[in-house]
């Protein structure tokens, strides 16, 4: 968890040049992510590229040109413990507010926080950073709760439509339910495939007859299941035909000869 002391230490080490009060608030957001353990992999304008999240590079970069965009700050981070997933952070200036959104790769539910800049920034140009910020502990606590905690709790979320067979898997990050094992219904075919691979790589060991026996049993059960299904369908067809013929016979009996 990031703390106000760690955040201030990061700011002092980076010694950023602020152009306005929104710069100060945005850099506090950046310093909080670094204090939490994230690494910066891109910042504006490179962070605005379409492949900013999907780009394979996880190399750490400097914070140079971080405040060159107009009314917007963009950062891309990677967590060293989960290097396969990146996080895109955007800070949008809206009058006296700073709108903060953090979206992790493969997610469609960004973490969001709105802050009033004047609640945390002192309007002066002094060189001492502690004299340019106020209520830093409160701001860092809000970032921890509303942004970083949400990203950490849902870090393993994956797009349900991105992989076949996962459409029925509930998103435990949004439902609050514990994740459950999911079976796609392909286990039988996977088992047969593994057995075939064993046969192809067999070197005369005992696993060959065992594999053949297991394969025969599996195929036999599948054929039996299909036969039972066809038998049941045949029974239903015969019953429907019998009911139809019986109805014709009864109708003929009641009508009698013309």
TrEMBL record:
<dbReference type="GO" id="GO:0004866">
    <property type="term" value="F:endopeptidase inhibitor activity"/>
</dbReference>
<dbReference type="InterPro" id="IPR021625">
    <property type="entry name" value="PI31_Prot_N"/>
</dbReference>
<dbReference type="InterPro" id="IPR045128">
    <property type="entry name" value="PI31-like"/>
</dbReference>
<keyword id="KW-0175">Coiled coil</keyword>
<protein>
    <submittedName>
        <fullName>Probable proteasome inhibitor</fullName>
    </submittedName>
</protein>
<feature type="coiled-coil region">
    <location>
        <begin position="122"/>
        <end position="153"/>
    </location>
</feature>
<feature type="domain" description="PI31 proteasome regulator N-terminal">
    <location>
        <begin position="16"/>
        <end position="152"/>
    </location>
</feature>
<dbReference type="GO" id="GO:0000502">
    <property type="term" value="C:proteasome complex"/>
</dbReference>
<dbReference type="GO" id="GO:0070628">
    <property type="term" value="F:proteasome binding"/>
</dbReference>
<dbReference type="Pfam" id="PF11566">
    <property type="entry name" value="PI31_Prot_N"/>
</dbReference>
<keyword id="KW-0647">Proteasome</keyword>
<dbReference type="GO" id="GO:0043161">
    <property type="term" value="P:proteasome-mediated ubiquitin-dependent protein catabolic process"/>
</dbReference>
<comment type="similarity">
    <text>Belongs to the proteasome inhibitor PI31 family.</text>
</comment>
